[in-house]
Amino acid sequence: MKSRLIFFTTLATISLSLTLLNAAEKATPVDFEQEVAPLLAQRCVSCHSPNIKKGELSLAGPEDLLANGFVVPGDPAGSYLLEVVSAAGDDRPAMPKLGDALTESEVTLLSRWIEQGAAWPDGFVIREASKADRSWWSLQPLADVHPPEVAAAPAAWRQNPIDRFVWAKLSAENLKPNAPADRRTLIRRATFDLTGLPPTAEEIDAFVADDSPTAYPQLIDRLLASPRYGERWGRHWLDVIRFGESRGFERNQIITNLWPFRDYVIRSINEDKPFDQFIREHLAGDVIAPNTPQVEVGSAFLVAGPYDDVGNQDPVQAAQIRANTIDEIIRSSSEAFLGLTVGCARCHDHKFDVISQRDYYSMYATFAGVKHGERTVATAEQRQERDRQLGDLKKQQADLTSQRDEIKNLAIARGETKKEHYAQLWSRPAISRQSTEEKFAPVQAKMVRLEVEGQERNPNSKSGYGIDEFEIWTAGENSQNIALSSAGATADGDSRRAGDFDGAYDAALTIDGKFGSRWLASGPQLTITLAEPQTVNRILFSSDRPGAAGSNGVANFVSEYRILVSVDGENWTEVANSHDRQPVNDAHRRKRLLAAELTDEDRARSQELETQLAAVNKTISQIPPLPVWWVGNHSAAPGPFHLFIGGSPQRPADEVTACSLSGLADSAPKYELPQDAAESERRLQLANWIVDPQNPLPQRVLANRIWQHHFGTGIVNTPNDFGYMGGRPSHPELLEWLAAELVKNDWRLKPLHRQIMLSQAYQQSSEHRAAASLVDGDSRLLWRFPPRRLSAEEVRDVILQISGKLNLDMGGPGFRLYQYLQDNVATYVPLDEHDASTYRRAVYHHNARAARIDLMTEFDSPDCAFSAPRRDETTTPLQALTMLNHDFTLDMAQFLAERLQAEAGDDPQKQVERAYQLCYGRSPTESETKSCVALATEHDLPALCRVLLNTSELIYLH
Prior knowledge:
By secondary structure, this protein is an alpha+beta fold. It is built from 33 helices and 18 strands.
């Protein structure tokens, strides 16, 4: 009995204590910013924010929350928020839709907050927390790291700091590196890496024979000094910055004057231009050095990507297209220079990285004045010299033009005073796109011709008009249209060429009995030939019979014409014309007045002035024009600039200014420009901020790119993304050290190349070891040198070099491996045959977007519509089929055979020996020689060459 009393007393004490604790907890003020805001940010705001308002409700601010009883301050029971987050029985609560239900303590916290009045601090906005914050590894200042001590490593692995980092990582996984590669392998590896071309057989022999300790460093220095280096590493950079020479999107018109930027990239890399300066020129070269073409062209980076030039007339769509264009520039810039996916913050704060939507629109403000297009790029001296040459000529041109126009204007003015007279002469209605009819006395005709003297949009042009149907009607009671192809009629007239669609605008469309498709004329005549002579008395023709085109230019019609008939095609009789019709518009009216009012004296004087003007114009045309390059144009774009809700320009929100990214505020300097900052200042300030020594991202990103192109994979295997969704560094300390070395060497790449390539890690063999691959299958830890297949450009270049046909001319407009056809849209048709003009290095190919180029496309040359920081490396049947059967390979096999005969004579064994030296940099084995001689004997030497060009050894590097 006593024990029971003690038990119930204890239970009552515990119950009272819990009651007192609950009461105390309820009485404790809720800290909104520290307790409620983090809960709403974590569990609610991802779906309920200003950008993503599920159920038209935002929980980022108090406005929606306090409306319609969702939260009733002081009344938890009357607040709908608690109802939707609380479970009823065994049912799951209605909210949140994603993730686990709120815990009992979280629901209690919300209840206490509401009961205490649901206070919300003024101006406080809740934002969804990103997965990473400012403590993310890539956002930290560069660490001052030192190579580890690796006393157990062989002496050769203790010399280069890179090797010490690699050895320490290998040791941690109980791995050992491979032995050094043989010298033949090493020179091929180094030469391909730095130049994209193989070493010659003579270079290989000399290197293999030279066992001095300076031979390999001297090889690296020679390769870095080669102009081929800039071509190879320039191609890497052009991949990153999505360099393409067509506009993309549905029209995809070719760009013929962007090649100076490609040459600038190659030249800058050959000169080892400090990369921080290179980046500044990409973003603001025109600001840094105006009127300095070789620097100004760097800013063509901004407009080297695709853009939509269709010209949508809907203001809403036009604004969206403009926003998309700036978005492309933001993404390209942030990924190339910072390794950050800033573009993901266009519609909302970045879900994974500490990049806010405000950050995105600060870059939007920075690039708001950039416009795609071409403009003159020249030095001040060039401009002044051209102005000097043109000075007197332009004055003469203006004076002569003024005198000529004065004669015309006086004649037209005289005509304007005779309106009633001309109204009587021009008594018939103007031509109509829907139906223009001419009636005349019955006449025998085998052929009927429309002779055009002017077209609707240009009274002085006799081409560029369209006709959908041209009808010829017989005289008599049962009149019939006999101008039909189905009745044996034919139509002849010069047509606009569609290129990829033969006959798309053919004259035959005028007699097919259908409306919609029309003949687009490139000349002044349309001639209809009837099946047999007929008596006719009426013509009916149109450019838009159904009236569907409205004022659209595609239905541009004739305005002035004559109609003639003939029986024999030699003697023609005019039966009708438009001369008594009302002019179709004011330009045509003025032309008629001019023709009617010019006196003989006026005509003589006008002809004299025209002759003098033609001579002046010819002299002007002979003065070389200033260069016009596709470098973009820059407008003031004064702002104010706004954040767009959901990324829509139709939903502007808070004002933003051009400023630094907030996520780097702890490691890089900050800047914020006023709304009225000049467009040029905005871009220059961004460029300076990116390459500021305190900004850790560009150095890391660039060092990683260099490492990637030597070892196949970067220390971070996502070279454009150093954020939460990107890869983690395989050697974080090494990446820090490489980035610091880059800055120490004034952002020059060549010293870093040399440091990497002199390492034992780079010089080791690629031999596969099964045990090691079980630990590190991709060789990210570098227990062996990772072998790779040659890139598409290397495959093509090496075939050209082996065959003796590679043209090493540098720079200038690119060659094309396609036929370019352009009408309303562009078409790129791959060439079946490649002539000598295409035998240049592939980096000089005119790379158009969405254009297949056979061999290079099959070997994973990327479409330049997007950044390609890392090439795919696929193996497909099409690669073998293209390499084996394309005319290019067949031609090169024939050229290689001719080279072998010239260099090795008619001895089959010597031919095979030379072929192996050229293709593989080695001598054939006895069995290889025997097999190759037999093949060449049975199927001829070009067949053997064709086989050698299709071997894996040719296109794989170890």
